[in-house]
Give the backbone structure.
Amino acid sequence: MTVRWLVPTLGYIVLVGALGVTSRLARRTLSWQDVVVWSGIGYVIVAGVFLASGQARLRFTTDGRWAMGSAVLAISGLIMLYVALGAGEATKVVTVSAAYPAATLLLAAAFLSEPVTIGRLAGLGLVIAGVVVMTLAA
């Protein structure tokens, strides 16, 4: 059912859009390292609630290692975003960062055997075109 993934995806879009603004505001006087610390505190609180309530547990399995890798990528990605927001306009930084489907398309094809279709390539072209237009717009 589409609603099961569409509603949280729309929430993600709004929250990441807001993240660009709040992070840029924070970076007026804070270093990217300061912003990472606050993000880490938030993650620790959420993880503590999940562990304490039994909704999650640490699993040291193959998939657990993939989760650890995902955590490293998420943290690294946020650091890159915070650094970029300290140097550039939120509108441009967040718009350019929205081109990540290009990386996902290539990596999913290489590691998950997901097909690269003409439709997906066309969609990717539209995403990139949109990023270029939004970035160059005054």
User: Anything to note?
Assistant: The CA atoms of residues 16 and 94 lie 9 Å apart. The chain is about 80% helix and 0% strand. The two ends are 40 Å apart (CA to CA). Helices lie at 2-26, 32-53, 62-87, 90-97, 101-112, 118-136.
